[in-house]
Amino acid sequence: MSGNPVDHENGSLETLETYQDWLNTLEQLRNENDLVALNQAYQNFSQEYFLPPEIWLQWINDERKRLLRQDLESANTRGLEVVERALNETLYSFEIWSLYLDLSVELFEYGKLSENVVRERFEQAVTQVALDFRDGWKIFEKYWDFEDKYGNKDNVSKLKLRCASLPFARYPEVLLEAADEEIRQRIARNQRKREERNKYEELISQLDISKEAEQIIEMESVVNTWKMYAEFETTVDLMRAKMIYERGLRSCYYVPDLWLLYLGFLTEYLPSSNLNTQVARKAFSCVPNSLEIAKYAMRSQERSDHGFHELSNIFWKAWSVMSMFPEHLVELSFSYLHCLRRLCADERLDKKYFSEILNDFQKTFDNDVLASADPNCQILRFIASCFQVVLKETLESIRNVWEQMLRKHGKLANTWLRYIQWEIHQQQYENARRLFRRGIHTLVEEVEILAQEWIGFEGLYGDISQYEKALKVTSERKTFCRRISKQPLPSSIANPLSSQREEYRNKSKRMKTKKEDSDNQIISSLSKSPRDSSFGARKWHKDVHTIFVSNLPKTTTEEEFQSLFQSVNGFLEARLVKDKEGVPKGFGYVEFQNDTGVLEALKADQSMFLGQKIIVKRSKPPKLQKSSTPSRRIGIGTGLRNDETEVFNVNEEESAKDLEESSTQATSQTSWTQDDFRRWIRESSLH
User: Fold this and answer.
1) Rounded to 5 degrees, what are φ and ψ at 325?
2) Where, if anywhere, are coiled coils annotated (predicted)?
């Protein structure tokens, strides 16, 4: 048997993982005749899952069997309690209603229930299940038998007339053989209605026969059959239609389509909040992986009076089963937050608690797949709006949310425009102007959109100098972006010599132990050598994927330099070189993940940036002091010894000056040759 065992000593169940585990456990306890533990298992099972009528009937029979050891009265009393709970928590079941009436009559015979109470229960059953086309007549038959034996005999003829007035698949023999002409006429008038319903009942019978024969049945055909039957009853009797939907769900509990049809029917024709909430929770319990049902269950719970915690439980259970579908998580989260916002606005949810939930959601965007599935920042925009409108938080906390949007979706013009519009709404025009500048130097594909908006903004809020500056900067940036987009990378050098790099790595792995130790000692020496650089210590071989940018305006800020190549594929970081007083020297370095980004960035050479033509070239590796034995080559298989090798002592500040001087000279070579790459690979193999 799968699942966890039952703890007989403590009378409690360990956590079982699946629905089938619970069924197996119930069967085991039933075979062991441990009826006390079996009752506890049923209790726990009903708290974890929605139980179909079949399980409730087993529970009732097992409970009566357990209590029959004491006396029949106790067994029936306890059985009646479980039946009443089943009627509230499961779908339509003629069998449970029939058992409910039988137990009520037995308790009446023991003097535990009055005649009027039993009669009220019969009337309730007539309303709930006596409309069943297949079996409803059985309720009337039980009813008039009770009246004939214990109640008012005058009611018997009235009940027979009521039964004859309704269309059933068949009628009791006592009615078909009755001498009363009125009963005969009523049965005859129902003939057409019986024929109409028989068509649908025959279709359902065919489905049942196919299922018993273990034939493959398309679930779509099952749903359509019940849908047609229910839609027909909707035009005749709404309670019959409700019964048809619930009959159909008993054959396909785990099909979301039929649940959604039923929920739609209840919303349109029987808009009782309690009924809708109960059915929505039952649907969610059966199909927790359905996005639409989860959203419906949350909205239904929002309208109920059960409080926030039930709503939260639905959301987090749905979140756990939909975690593999990020696009579903976005829609689910959005629906949940809307429910909470309305609860907060209606003062049914504390604002402080609502703020904590929003902050938790905001944090999920840093490490969760939810961020990549929400390119339009719907959730973060909603959070920012709630901070502003509902919670009336400080502007700084709202800006933090917007900045988070830019970090995740800063390549979309729509994100920048929404943030800028918010700043304009706050009348923070300087902040909006700074965002325009940042956005222009970040976007590539959608730079035209933001450029047009910036010019319009300065035309409305700026003076002549600000307007002309916007025209100039946007024009330069658009030219730069067009140059990048019109010069695709040659396929032959998109990923240079990757196979040769791998070949050299494999050779390196086959080197002798002595040579490997020597290489490790050199690397260790390099890591310990002093570095004096304005932009921090780093291994020189990373310069393979680094460019040198010079002729920058001395007023360039770190933020503006960062945004210059931020949109290039593989961008890692940009470092603006400054003097001891923190004043930019007019040049800097930009590092990429691979050579693809370097080649793309080199196209920006001689382009305009903040009114000046910038120079973009490859960064040269630091100067290397060769070994004291010139006959030995630094590379693979040299086996350099510590006593004949000097540590590479790299002064990057000096190297940066050399690069600055060399960058002002014209050069016709913008890419490396195959020999250049081979030489670099040999020299970097030590690392």
Assistant:
1) -125, 90
2) 176-213
From the list 598, 579, 599, 600, the residue with the least C-alpha distance to 589 is 598
| Count of CA atoms in the C-beta half-sphere (13 A) of 357 | 25
Q: Angle 238-251/256-269 helices, nearest 10 degrees?
A: 160
pTM: 0.61
**Number of Cβ within a 10 Å radius of residue 264:** 11
DSSP 367-420: HSTTTTT-TT-HHHHHHHHIIIIIS---HHHHHHHHHHHHHHHTT-HHHHHHHH
CA dist., res. 574 & res. 442, Å (int): 13
Cα 429 from Cα 73, distance rounded (Å): 82
Q: How many CA atoms lie within 13 A of 641 on its CB side?
A: 4
* Paired residues of 590 in beta bridges: 547, 574
Residue that has been written with the tokens 């008039």 in this structure:
144
φ and ψ of 571, to 5 deg: -60, 135
Record the tokens describing residue 309, joined without a space.
Answer: 């915690």
Domains of the chain with CATH codes: 6-145 (1.25.40.10), 191-266 (no CATH), 267-486 (1.25.40.10), 498-684 (3.30.70.330)
Give me 330's structure tokens: 């976005």
CB contact at 8 A, 585 and 578: yes
User: Contact at 8 Å (CB) between 421 and 384?
Assistant: no
Give residue 247's identity as a one-letter amino acid code.
R
